């Protein structure tokens, strides 16, 4: 989108009394990879995120989601980590100047060999400019990696964003289509004092022809469970 299109979209959002809480640019598909060994690909990836910062500023969106990228699986992961760190540091500085907070997501080993755990999240964030990046939680990725939610709660008040969706037999399913104890997770998070946003992430192939219906289903499911009126 160019500036005019973004401003038009911002006006449409405001006219509906809505707001954008987080922008998630493409980052798990080639050629976007912040840990890429090929410098041209890595620079392209950085520019891709910079465009997201520009969009966030126009849309008055406070957060942009980032992940660490992936290195070659037959090469030392330490090298990929270093490239990711350098890329994320550059992006953190630029985002901070625009007033945008980066939220760092853990990915499963299917998508990344660089950053998969909340402990690695904490380490990477410690290497960034102070206040420029915070951790987030993806419920489905946590379950896929057989991680406990308490490990993410160890971030305390720094936990800044959550992807909420169902899983099994697929992932990124609308609420009610899988078997995850969603209400239990919500109770744990709310009891722990989580104050951030929940983003419905339901992009399994079955929903792509009618994504709005997946949103309606998930919201209806939450109402049925008494999560809100």
From TrEMBL:
It comes from the Bacteria. InterPro entries: IolE/XylAMocC-like, Xyl_isomerase-like_sf, Xyl_isomerase-like_TIM-brl. Residues 2-224 form the Xylose isomerase-like TIM barrel domain. This is Protein FrlC. It comes from Moryella indoligenes.
């Amino acid at each position: 989108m160019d500036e005019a299109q973004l401003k038009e979209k911002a006006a449409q959002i405001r006219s509906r009394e809505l707001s954008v809480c987080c922008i998630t640019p493409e980052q798990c598909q080639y050629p976007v990879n912040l840990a890429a060994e090929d410098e041209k690909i890595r620079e392209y990836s950085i520019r891709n995120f910079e465009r997201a910062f520009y969009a966030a500023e126009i849309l008055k969106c406070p957060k942009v989601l980032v992940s660490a990228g992936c290195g070659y699986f037959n090469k030392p992961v330490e090298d990929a980590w270093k490239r990711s760190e350098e890329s994320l540091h550059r992006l953190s500085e630029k985002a901070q100047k625009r007033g945008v907070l980066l939220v760092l997501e853990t990915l499963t080993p299917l998508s990344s060999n660089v950053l998969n755990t909340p402990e690695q999240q904490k380490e990477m964030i410690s290497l960034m400019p102070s206040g420029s990046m915070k951790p987030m939680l993806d419920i489905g990725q946590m379950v896929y990696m057989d991680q406990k939610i308490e490990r993410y709660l160890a971030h305390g008040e720094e936990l800044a964003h959550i992807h909420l969706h169902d899983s099994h037999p697929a992932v990124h399913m609308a609420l009610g289509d899988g078997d995850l104890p969603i209400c239990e997770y919500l109770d744990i998070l709310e009891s722990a004092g989580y104050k951030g946003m929940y983003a419905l992430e339901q992009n399994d192939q079955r929903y792509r022809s009618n994504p709005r219906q997946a949103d309606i289903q998930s919201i209806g499911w939450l109402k049925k469970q008494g999560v809100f009126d």
